[in-house]
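ping. complex inputs:
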Amino acid sequence: MKMKAMFIERIGKLEENPLILREVDIPKPTENEVLIKVSYCGVCHTEIDEIEGRRMPKIPVIPGHEVVGYVVEKGNKVKNLKIGDRVGVAWIKHACGKCRYCKSGEENLCNDFIATGADADGGYAEYMVVESEFAYKIPENLKDETTAPILCAGAVGFRAYKLSEIKDGETVALFGFGASNHIVYRYIRYLNPSSKIVVFVKKLGDNATKLAEELGADYIFETFSEISITYDKAIDTTPVGEVIPYALKYLNKGGHIVVNAIRKETPINAFDYTLIWEERSVKSVANVTRDDVINALKLASVIPIIPKVTIFPLEDANKALLSIKQGKIQGAAVLKIS
Ligand SMILES: [Zn+2]
Ligand SMILES: [Zn+2]
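pong. complex structure:
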């Protein structure tokens, strides 16, 4: 049996339509794995980093780590899932469970971490296999297509939220307002109802601005403009290194900036030590744990969160990625696969 899948076969420029459509054999699940028939797969900025070589994938690879689908076959040792279950797969495809990171609840830092759609095949395909312990049942009130972005943007967003240690009443700045931060915005509003949220966009009036206005952000500013307020915590999802020193300028004493980006496209320019003096800190988010994914799905279900999505067919994955790079998508892009 064959399936359609999009492949990254070489490192190159996104503008050269690098993803190639192929017909390949449907993978067979091993004893601990399930075979999933994919219904939707979210499109993430990390795929651009893979294609352009900032986060090297295995070659060739089927990208995609925001996978929603249905279990159609399972290995004989699988206990936690049954045929027909609707499940999600996120960036974490495997962690060893034995190293010091795994043992201390930081499986996101596992020495043998395997990333879905980068180190192993992902969901830009009609079918994929995954260990059943790394697939999550999706709460009933969520739809397939709007759950896809929750699995990465929402899950890594949850991790960024958690690491930023926001307390109710604090002012929080969000740099970049795409797939992840527009979900984080909802977590902050729900969990910290007295907090004020400041959204920084690339250009006032752009898609991110419109989305922030629609959601009711307290302030919206253009990044790198002079502003007259300060904030306690910040989450930066931009690919621009220079945002970090800029964000530090307006950060209150003892505040943190959490950088939720797998790679920055430009370096962080040198800055004076005084920007981090008075116990200001900058911390990155790496990968996700299964707990982050489960928490993101729970929050999406109870708040509820219905991310803004633009749907593309699988064959148009190149176009979807280019639209993200060019800032043409409001919210998240999702591939409809079956
Ligand atoms: Zn992602
Ligand atoms: Zn480990």
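The chain has a mean pLDDT of 96.
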